[in-house]
Design a protein that fits this description.
The chain is α/β, with parallel strands linked by helices. It has a single domain, classed as Trna Endonuclease, Chain: A, domain 1 (3-Layer(aba) Sandwich), CATH 3.40.1350. 20% of the residues lie in helices and 48% in strands. It contains 2 helices and 7 strands. A 7-stranded mixed beta sheet has the order 1-2-3-4-5-7-6. Strand 4, helix 1 and strand 5 form a beta-alpha-beta unit. The longest helix is centred in the middle third of the chain and has 12 residues. It is globular, with a radius of gyration of 13 Å. The N and C termini lie far apart (27 Å). 17% of the residues are buried.
Length: 89
Amino acid sequence: MLNFYVDGYEVYVGKYNDIEIDFIAIKPDERVYYQVSRSILDEKVEEREKKSLLAIKDNYPKIILTMDKVKNKEIDGIKVINIIDFLSD
């Protein structure tokens, strides 16, 4: 697994157990899971991106980053955030 540091988080690229996750950001008492997709407007793509995150059975935040124009969107408990908005914050 490749790892690097961003804003005090240790960020891993790779897998969580046997589940492929794009990024896992970890601090001692925090964890955030990220999937990245150009668009999730296609139902099959949305399902694929959600599947990995929904398989993780903890209560840490799960986020899909996309180029889609979205505001305050949530799908099955997963936040969906426009990547430009995410990088601007």
